[in-house]
Design goal:
3-stranded mixed β-sheet, 9-stranded mixed β-sheet, 26% strand, single chain, 12 strands, 3 helices, globular
Length: 202
């Protein structure tokens, strides 16, 4: 047993404090927007210049000019605002984003994150990730527990080029919620039916 993608997103949404600002990475993290309780009054930030993202639009409301940093079409809430990249990154670098939720290729016990390139593979760029991991107050990683070769992505030491050093607070995968502590990953919560040995933690 393990969490589905939507169950992962719903769980991550419960970790966010009321009234906080959140930046969501592309892929799995983007699902969090659709699972946030509106009563929590959370403002979702996109580094291309939007504050107030509220998830994916319906077919009748979709606009090709309203997108997030991953070029996905989005919907916005009534309090949304728009701004240029310099102000957007000023918000990030100035420490005004409470949470950043990103995907990853590897995370290690020392809180290091690798999520932007695999040497020898095509590189499209790191986007705003390097700014976000150093500017946001808390960094959550939302990713699959194993890569496509069946290898665990929670490691003793990362082997890929780093996005950020000593930056990861928590990791949520389909198997559970984990926290790097310098030596291993503490188990905060396991998905229903998952055993500790299934996680293959370092």
């Amino acid at each position: 047993m393990s969490w589905t993608k939507d169950e992962m997103a719903k769980y991550v949404a419960t970790l966010l404090e009321k009234g906080s600002s959140v930046n969501l990475g592309i892929g799995l993290p983007s699902l969090v927007a659709e699972n946030i309780d509106p009563s929590k009054e959370i403002m979702i930030h996109s580094e291309n210049g939007v504050l107030g993202v509220s998830g994916r639009p319906s077919k009748k409301d979709v606009s090709p000019t309203l997108i997030n940093a991953g070029k996905e079409t989005i919907s916005i809430n009534q309090a949304a605002s728009y701004f240029d990249s310099s102000l957007s990154f000023g918000m990030i670098r100035g420490g005004h984003i409470d949470y950043c939720i990103l995907g990853a290729m590897e995370v290690d016990c020392e809180r290091n994150l690798a999520n932007w390139m695999i040497p020898g593979k095509k590189v499209t760029g790191m986007g705003g990730a390097m700014d976000l991991v150093n500017g946001a107050k808390k960094i959550f990683i939302m990713m699959t527990h194993f890569n496509k070769h069946g290898e665990v992505k929670l490691l003793k030491k990362t082997s890929l080029p780093l996005t950020g050093k000593n930056v990861v607070d928590d990791v949520i995968t389909e198997l559970g919620h984990f926290r790097p502590n310098g030596k291993t990953f503490e188990i905060i919560k396991l998905a229903s039916g998952v055993r500790e040995e299934d996680c293959k933690l370092p």
